[in-house]
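User: Show me a protein chain along with its predicted structure.
Assistant: Here is one chain, sequence first, then structure tokens.
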Amino acid sequence: MKIGVLGGGQLGRMMALAGYPLGLQFRFFDKSAGAPASQVAEFHTGDFNDERAIECFAAGLDLVTYEFENVPSSAARFLSRRIGQFFPPPGALEMAQDRYVQKQFFQRLGVPTPLFQAVGTREELQQAVELTGFPAVLKTRRWGYDGKGQAVLREPSDLDRAWDSMGGTALILEGFVKFEREVSLIAVMSKSRASVFYPLTENRHREGILRVSLAPAQGIDPYVQLLAERYARSIFQELQYTGVLTIEFFYIDGKLLANEMATRVHNSGHWTIEGADTSQFENHLRAITDLPLGSTVARGASAMVNFIGSVPDISLVLSMPGAHLHLYGKAPRPGRKLGHVTLCAPDYGTLKKSLETLQNFADC
């Protein structure tokens, strides 16, 4: 079976590496000829809005998936019509591209969220902040990631500054959440409607970029895990979903508030490559090809640490017990994800010591 993947980043690269042992073949499409997936699979370069290029890419494919959200919905729907198998479905992709539409969707399904309000004018911004109060977070509705396209508003004088820098595009204002932790759920639904769920993962960000993921998240009541899974099931059913779905939550006093969802494999699930019986990448491929889903049981405790902007001494990383290194073949650049290391340990106490050792020579 030959699978087409829209987007050629590190997520796609890891997807292909997980799929080769299953006998799958891959073809990628990306606007950048040097994208990480070009190192491991057949690769087409072009504009996502170029229907002729997309048609050429589609020739001979059995199904298509994607590894990032910034795929034009027109390309997704064209491929869905052309091939008949496009997963997750185009409607889910469109949902993931708009933060305001997502929040409305969550509310309709009974999934709690922070306060939010759509903002299109300076007057609407003033009205929205009267609803949320200070502090609040102003975000672009589309295209923002890794902390881009958002600003924290702490007092009335911040409104003009934020509007001057972000006005002119569709925005959403969200109430600031004083959370205890940020957690994510990686969930999987197959074409046959079988589902599996990974344990909730704790995520630590700095400057809007994920730095460290810890799995399974410690001190989480089993009820909270089941609650997150219930929310995911409702999304699966409503969207007729197939593939991996990631939901990011704020955890507060045993409760969950949905922040965002990603209709794809996710950075916070990288630990599953070595830290779970079956990785998120393999389970995504199993789901969309309708193979039996694999076990999501965690193998002890794991920490995934992103390398942002630079990579530490590889020899020091590899000298650590339980360390698994992944480099993406990207040129260094400030704020860019260049790779990650997953630390695996039999228990959280041992894992904590390994993290402390890593922090001596890596920025995490």
